[in-house]
């Protein structure tokens, strides 16, 4: 059986898989980034809509960003509630401490975190370009710090706020 030269058949290209472009990233990564926010949804690829079903319109990027920020905030709230449960449990005498799943506050925080994480992640990956996901993830650092200050009375200096804002800005570049 003759051997064929390695090609990237997934993209119908004769370029080697390790081919790089001006950005320095492998070609397949750049092609995925370009396709991350489809302007045409699968229902719109066919001529017209399916029988009796309206065509779906893509969610606008600003709406997706706002919903992503809300989901990230709710996820951070769940983590902070879980941490509050841990701190309250650690303050008890050793004999009165309970495992996580026997503490209602921890279960509430875990449920909030899980719902926001699954729903938010699935939504964000499907609605936003891949290059916007990193800055949205970095914003959760800011949310975590603010919620820890408000709900847990953690120390938060101006320097820490500036550093966290710097991380958010740097992740966007």
Give an overview in words.
The protein has 173 residues and is mostly helical. It has helices at 27-34, 42-45, 61-90, 104-127, 130-152, 158-171. The chain contains 6 helices and no strands. It has a domain at 61-171. It starts with 26 loop residues before the first helix and ends with a helix.
Structural category: mainly alpha
Binned, the helix content reads: 55-70%
Reported for the largest beta sheet, the result is:
none
Strand content: under 5%
Count of helix runs: 6
Name the overall outline: flat
Calculate the mean pLDDT score and round it. 76
Low-confidence stretches: 7-15, 17-26, 43-48
What's the end-to-end separation, in Å? Answer: 49 Å
Q: What is the H/E order? A: HHHHHH
What is this entry, summarized?
This protein is mainly alpha-helical. It is built from six helices and no strands.
Please give the structural blueprint.
Blueprint: H1 27-34, H2 42-45, H3 61-90, H4 104-127, H5 130-152, H6 158-171
Task: Give descriptors for this structure.
173 residues; mainly alpha
């Amino acid at each position: 059986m003759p051997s064929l030269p390695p090609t990237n058949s997934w993209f119908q290209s004769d370029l080697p898989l390790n081919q790089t472009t001006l950005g320095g990233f492998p070609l397949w990564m750049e092609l995925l980034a370009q396709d991350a926010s489809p302007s045409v949804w699968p229902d719109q690829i066919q001529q017209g809509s399916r029988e009796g079903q309206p065509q779906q319109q893509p969610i606008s990027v600003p709406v997706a960003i706002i919903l992503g920020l809300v989901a990230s905030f709710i996820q951070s709230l769940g983590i902070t509630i879980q941490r509050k449960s841990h701190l309250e449990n650690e303050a008890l005498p050793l004999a009165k401490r309970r495992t996580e799943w026997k503490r209602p506050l921890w279960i509430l925080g875990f449920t909030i975190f899980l719902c926001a994480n699954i729903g938010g992640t699935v939504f964000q990956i499907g609605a936003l370009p891949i290059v916007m996901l990193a800055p949205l993830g970095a914003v959760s650092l800011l949310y975590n710090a603010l919620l820890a200050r408000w709900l847990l009375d953690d120390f938060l200096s101006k320097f820490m706020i500036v550093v966290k804002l710097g991380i958010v800005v740097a992740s966007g570049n």
